[in-house]
């Protein structure tokens, strides 16, 4: 993610069997031109875009896992009737006490500082760009929803996962609207820009890379919503803590599902999975909302990420912890029978969390007094980075 100050290590793609490349121009005049076209991601994606890097014969692996996925992945979905809905945690517009409840909610929100609201807005905007994530899942070869109602386990998961995720943005959006603390028009503009820009996870239509990305991301969102819940509790807003905690619990369930898929891939195709894990780590996991823009601040994501790190919601240290967790969960250190490249990838991945932590500690020692800047989401009030 953008917070990491490590330099990307040399990139070796081990998947480029059939990899048409799109060259992205990075000249100064192009960049200036692209700033006028904020939906364009060209000014911020400086790498060759690789597509369809999984050898076509590997699609058979995902077809053969159809029943396995039905029994081992779909079980992580919750039946709709047992799911919470945003309305369970919001004032009921049909009740007599509606306005009283909003007043009480706004009273609690008054005690919460602006920087915390900026983080919550960042979380909400990330959740609201859900159309992009469903699109992204449907770029993966061998597991995409081919029709929109495909009955395969992979497609069933993607649709139901999307439907579960949709509640997160809805709840946070309505909460933030009713809190009266944020400039909803500026926030809504940011969402529109973000969905228009898309995302660049470097998944190459490759489900090996893609499911490693989603495992990482679900864990990262579990950590950040969980920390947001902890801070809300410290600030005395127990209802907000409950909202963030519920979302974190969903993310954890999703993390379990995606991690199970990758665990299975390690079991049946360890070398390819090992190389994919190393490849994703070399490229670094970009956050889903890394292209966010509010029409004004072209470093908006970095500013949001800096505030989230300063508050202890999500930092480079968490990034390293997520990686370490996955290395342990997939028992990467214990893998045997790998090719020489696979062993190199294994060594690289196993040593990476420790290296990131060392670099991060040094960066923290060098950290200067944080500057502050006005942010559109909180009516241009100054917030320290
Ligand atoms: Fe979510
Ligand atoms: Fe999620």
UniProtKB/TrEMBL annotation:
GO molecular function (one): metal ion binding
Chief location category: plastid
Organism field: Chenopodium quinoa (Quinoa)
Pfam families, per the entry: FA_desaturase_2
Localization (cell): Plastid, Chloroplast
Protein name listed in UniProt: Stearoyl-[acyl-carrier-protein] 9-desaturase, chloroplastic
UniProt similarity note: Belongs to the fatty acid desaturase type 2 family.
Keyword Metal-binding appears in the UniProt entry: yes
Keywords for this protein: Chloroplast, Fatty acid biosynthesis, Fatty acid metabolism, Iron, Lipid biosynthesis, Lipid metabolism, Metal-binding, Oxidoreductase, Plastid, Transit peptide
Binding-site list for Fe cation 2: 165, 218, 251, 254
Chain coiled-coil ranges: none
Alphabetized InterPro entries for the sequence: Fatty_acid_desaturase-2 (IPR005067), Ferritin-like_SF (IPR009078), RNR-like (IPR012348)
Cofactor binding note: Binds 2 iron ions per subunit.
Presence of the UniProt keyword Kinase in the record: no
Subunit structure: Homodimer.
A biological process term (GO) from this entry: fatty acid biosynthetic process
Signal peptide: none
Protein role: Converts stearoyl-ACP to oleoyl-ACP by introduction of a cis double bond between carbons 9 and 10 of the acyl chain.
CDD domains (UniProt xref): Acyl_ACP_Desat
């Amino acid at each position: 993610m953008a917070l990491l100050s490590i330099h990307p290590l040399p990139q070796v793609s081990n998947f480029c069997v059939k990899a048409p490349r799109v060259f992205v121009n990075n000249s100064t005049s192009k960049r200036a031109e692209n700033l006028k076209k904020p939906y364009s991601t060209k000014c911020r994606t400086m790498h060759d875009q690789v597509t369809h890097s999984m050898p076509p014969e590997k699609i058979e692996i995902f077809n053969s896992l159809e029943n396995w996925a039905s029994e081992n992945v779909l079980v992580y979905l919750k039946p709709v009737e047992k799911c919470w809905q945003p309305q369970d945690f919001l004032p009921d517009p049909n009740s007599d006490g509606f306005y009283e409840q909003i007043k009480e909610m706004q009273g609690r929100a008054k005690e919460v500082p602006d920087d915390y609201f900026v983080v919550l807005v960042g979380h909400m905007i990330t959740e609201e760009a859900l159309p992009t994530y469903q699109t992204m899942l449907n770029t993966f070869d061998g597991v995409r929803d081919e029709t929109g109602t495909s009955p395969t386990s992979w497609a069933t998961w993607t649709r139901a996962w999307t439907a579960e995720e949709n509640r997160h943005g809805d709840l946070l959006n309505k909460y933030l609207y009713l809190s009266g603390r944020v400039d909803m028009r500026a926030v809504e503009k940011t969402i529109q820009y973000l969905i228009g820009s898309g995302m660049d996870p470097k998944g190459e239509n490759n489900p090996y890379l893609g499911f490693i990305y989603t495992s990482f991301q679900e864990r990262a969102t579990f950590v950040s919503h969980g920390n947001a819940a902890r801070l809300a509790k410290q600030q005395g807003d127990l209802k907000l803590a409950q909202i963030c905690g519920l979302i974190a619990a969903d993310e954890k369930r999703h993390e379990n599902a995606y991690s199970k898929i990758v665990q299975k891939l390690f079991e049946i195709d360890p070398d390819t999975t090992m190389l994919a894990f190393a490849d994703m780590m070399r490229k670094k996991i970009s956050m889903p909302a890394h292209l966010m823009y509010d029409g004004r601040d072209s470093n908006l994501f970095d500013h949001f990420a800096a505030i989230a790190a300063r508050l202890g919601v999500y930092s480079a240290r968490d990034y390293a912890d997520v990686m370490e967790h996955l290395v342990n969960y997939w028992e990467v250190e214990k893998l045997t029978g790998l090719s020489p490249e696979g062993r190199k990838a294994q060594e690289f991945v196993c040593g990476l969390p420790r290296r990131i932590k060392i670099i991060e500690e040094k960066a923290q020692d060098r950290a200067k007094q944080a500057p502050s800047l006005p942010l559109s989401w909180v009516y241009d009030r100054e917030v320290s980075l």
